[in-house]
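TL;DR need structure tokens for one chain.
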Amino acid sequence: MAQKMNNPRFPHQCVIYRKEGATSFGGGTLKEIYKGVCRKSSSTNIRTFNTGSNTTGKVDIADYRVSMPGIVKGIQKGDFIDVTDIIGTEKGMRIVMIDATQLMGGGTAVLCNTSSN
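>> reply
TL;DR here they are.
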């Protein structure tokens, strides 16, 4: 008999935070912006994502898309996100784009780079 698969819409956990008051020498404090459920996904086409009318030709490069239920206010480009999935925790990913929508109950998505990028 096959086991039923548990596949909730937001199966992962994440924390979005900002480093405040830090200098190139370190220091500063962490301000938590969101802590809760999310869904992390990767895609090869994320690396070609463009921010739209961009006269400098700069393209945002991202390794993952992370979605949260509802509108999460206060997230900024440059904030950090830690995501825990079934494999483990990816820490210190930098957010490169935020998209929030109120369609179908609302949701917030961010594109982010791994800490090695």
